[in-house]
Amino acid sequence: MSAVDGGKTRSDDTTAAGEPAATNGPVLEVQGLKKHFPIYKGTVIRRRSGAVRAVDGVSFSIGAGETLGLVGESGCGKTTTGYTIMQLEQASAGEVIFEGQNLTKLPAGERRQARRRMQMIFQDPYGSLNPRMTVGNIIAEPLVVHNIGDSKAERRDRVHELLQLVGLSPGHAVRYPHEFSGGQRQRIATARSLAVEPSFIVCDEPVSALDVSIQAQIINLLRELQQQFAVAYLFIAHDLEVVRHISDRVAVMYVGLLAEVASSDELYVRPLHPYTRALLSAIPFPDPEIEATRKRIILPGDVPSPANPPSGCRFHPRCPWSKDRCSEEVPELVDAGGGHEVACHFWSEIEESGGVIPSDSGKTFSRRRFSDSAVGNL
Fold it and tell me: What is the structure's pLDDT at 209?
C-alpha cells in the first residue's frame, strides 16, 4: 500500500456536512500539505523576513481501520502535521481530503460539522483536560457541541458507557481530572474522542508522558477500540518500538518532509533511507550479547532549522552516503517495490552495499551492517 493509496473505507453514502461521503478511496488523503509560520522583524514597522517551514509538502493516505505511524526527531513537523490535518492550524498550501471533503476549502460552519467525524488525543494528559470540569462534563461536551442526544439523561448514559469502554467506572464521572493518574487521564481523553463516533483520530504522542506499563495499557486499549469500531489512526510518536506495535504502516519524517513510507514489518527489516537506518540503529536490543556487538550510526550535528533548511536533500549534511547531487536536487518519494517508498537518490546503491558506510565519506560515523543479526529481530 503506497503513501498515496490507502485501504478500504466505510461504505456510508450520506453527503451531509459532518457525515461520511460516498467514496471508494481512503478515509483521509493529505496532498502536498504545507504549513509555514512567518518570521517578522522590526517593532514599529514589521516586515516578513522569512518563514519556518514546519511542514513543507507532505502527502499520504489512511484507510478505514488502518494506523499510520508518523515518526521522527523533535522539531521535524509531526505534531504540526496533525494539527493542520485537524484544521487547528490553517494550511499554507495543499489539501486535506477527509471522507471525500476537502477540509481546507470548507466554510467554517461546515468544517466544524466535519470535525464530528475526526478527533484528536493530545500528548499531555495533564493539560488537555479542563481542571474546572468534571469528567462527565468533559466527555459530554462533544455531545453537546454536536447536538447528540435528546436529553441530559441520554448523554449521561452515553458518558457512563464510554467510561466503561475505556476501563473506568461510571462513578468516575463526578470526579475532577486532578483526582486521576496520568494513564487514567489519557483514558478519559480517549473516551472524549470516541464520544461522537469518529472514523479518524489523530493520536499525538498519547503515551510519551506515561510509564512503560501504562503505555502498554493505552496502546492495547487503542488497538481494541480500533478493532471494535474500525477507526483509523494517525499515530504520532518518538518511540519506534511503540509505533511498530500499533501501526500498519510507518512514515518517517525529517525537517518537514517524508523520508520513507512502508509497512511496519517492511520498514523495520528493510530500512532504505539513511535517516531511517540511523533511527533504527539507536533502538536498544534486549539481548545483551547482541547489543554489545552491534554498532550505532551516530549522526553528526543537529537537526537543521526549518527556518533555514539545507538545499537539496535536507538530510545530506548529516548523511554518510551523501554526494554532490544530494545538495543540489530534492529527492522525490519513489516506489522501491511493494509500496515501500523512499526519498533518496542513492537508496539502491546503499542497499546493495549492505548499508556499509563508505570509508571515503569524509565524516566520522559508527558503522554497522543492517543485514546482520539484530535488525531482523527488531
Answer: 77
Q: Tell me the DSSP string of 351-362.
A: HHTTTPPPTTSS
User: CA 367 to CA 123: how far, in whole Å?
Assistant: 35
Arithmetic mean of pLDDT over the chain: 86
> Which amino acid, one-letter code, is at 347?
W
pLDDT at 360: 62
Indicate if the pLDDT at residue 162 is higher than 60.
Answer: yes
User: Which class would CATH give 28-39+50-254?
Assistant: alpha beta
Which residues of the chain form CATH 3.40.50.300? 28-39+50-254
> What would the DSSP string read from start to end of 129-165?
S-TTS-HHHHHHHHHHHTT-SSSHHHHHHHHHHHHHH
Using left for φ > 0, alpha for ψ between -120 and 50, and beta otherwise, residue 356 falls in beta
Beta bridge partners of 58: 33
Closest CA to 274 of 340, 370, 338: 370
Evaluate if residue 126 carries a pLDDT over 50.
yes
Query: Distance between CA 329 and CA 163 in Å, rounded?
Result: 52
Q: What's the rounded Cα separation, in Å, for the pair 350 and 123?
A: 36
Q: Do the Cβ atoms of 122 and 130 come closer than 8 Å?
A: no
- Interhelix angle 182-194/212-229, nearest 10 degrees: 10
- Kindly tell me if the per-residue pLDDT of 374 is higher than 60: no
The DSSP string of 183-240 is HHHHHHHHHHHHTT--SEEEEESTTTTS-HHHHHHHHHHHHHHHHHH--EEEEEES-H
Q: What is the pTM of this model?
A: 0.85
CA–CA separation, 118 and 113 (whole Å): 10
